[in-house]
User: What shape does this take?
Amino acid sequence: MNIRQIRNATLVIDYGGKRFLTDPWFGPKGDFPGFDGTPNSHLRNPTVDLPVPIDELLGVDAVILTHVHPDHWDDHAARALPKDIPFFVQHAGDREIIRAAGFTDVRVLTGNPVFDGVKIIKTPGQHGSDECVTAIYDLLGEVCGLVLRHPSEPTLYLAGDTVFNDYVEANLRSFSPDVIVLNCCDAQVTGLGSIIMNKEDVREVYRLAPHARIVASHMEAVNHATLTRAALRGFLTEHGMTDRVLVPEDGETCVL
Amino acid sequence: MNIRQIRNATLVIDYGGKRFLTDPWFGPKGDFPGFDGTPNSHLRNPTVDLPVPIDELLGVDAVILTHVHPDHWDDHAARALPKDIPFFVQHAGDREIIRAAGFTDVRVLTGNPVFDGVKIIKTPGQHGSDECVTAIYDLLGEVCGLVLRHPSEPTLYLAGDTVFNDYVEANLRSFSPDVIVLNCCDAQVTGLGSIIMNKEDVREVYRLAPHARIVASHMEAVNHATLTRAALRGFLTEHGMTDRVLVPEDGETCVL
Assistant: This one.
């Protein structure tokens, strides 16, 4: 399995002989304003450019979208991707959105479909603490994570845009993943705390999955991120976690 | 805690000093045709009448709806219930449906809200096997279960319209419920198997939750049910499970 960190949650994953593109956010640096009510909202998003030309991201077998937030999916991606590509989404609501963008082969992850031998399991997550999501549900909405399984591959778990919580702990127990991708830039909403994982959440996952390798993703691309790669690396060193946690730069491939 | 079995998944639950009504399906016997493509589709639904006058079901503090299938929610309930009652639903899509029916205080379970001291946790489930849900997602859709918690109460888990699967197993581990409500009439879709729990699923839950009491619900009310209360009771006796599994009749209250 290879996981290439592109930018934010956009990954190219080679798994079970297939190539998957996750959460395609293709806009240029500064494409839209920072999110209101979040740290550093004066910064525009994305805060960095894509590390590769968009053309390099189009030769994939399928797209998987964990949710439709604007840092995971945008018009630039909608325009660039082939309209007949198999496109997996979390539920009927997102299917409607992707179909409306012109895609003709949109499949729902509920039911844990198999794509050319790769089993794609939908996993629960939550885009903030209970207090946070209850307070601003209309902004945070529904999200999912993924588990990929194939007879010739280690098990891969992408937690998606979730904080560490009972759902994540249950997924770790249920699927015993060998490789785990965590979205962990500690993006925050002012007054409501983290809406994806922070460094302590990474430590919890590290502790609960003592044999898994962890890939830190969704770093240094959005205005409301509060944890840099450098700060995370410092934390990993401080806590003796560098043996199993990778922090790839944008454009870097993790061979796993 | 008291759980009164009304009919199908309609329950009145006294918990933490509050009274909850779940999945209010109020139509009279024979209100609509049997489900196409299911066993005994010549029978009309519901197959039995409500055991109590509708008026007896209206004095509750809140409604919780696990999903909007027509054997869980109907126009009769929409007309009868007070429009300002706190009404909990699984996600924004169902919120739209309930708001369109005139309800003014519709709350989403995502974020695991607290209602007057009762924590309501949304739990994942799946309305059939992977093969079944992948094949007929547009019919089966999204569902949820619930966990109720209160400092002075045992933990209650309502699995909802789900088969036994990794999600249910994870919920049992995460929440260690003391009381579990299972929808277990083994409703089936022809050629695609069970879409809620069957007797073997009940046995799996019994085995995995060795200290919990289990209430069998969603029995003998829909055309596609294939497991009767009598058959379930026979199975429980055969397998030595009568000590912890209750099979209430419609109208009967379980004091737990």
Chain A touches chain B at residues 91-93, 108, 110-113, 121, 124, 126, 128, 130-135, 137-138, 141-142, 166-167, 169-171, 173-175 (CB under 8 Å). Helices of chain A lie at 75-80, 92-100, 130-135, 137-140, 166-175, 199-208, 229-238. Chain A has one domain: 2-248. Residues 22 and 64 of chain A are 5 Å apart (CA to CA).
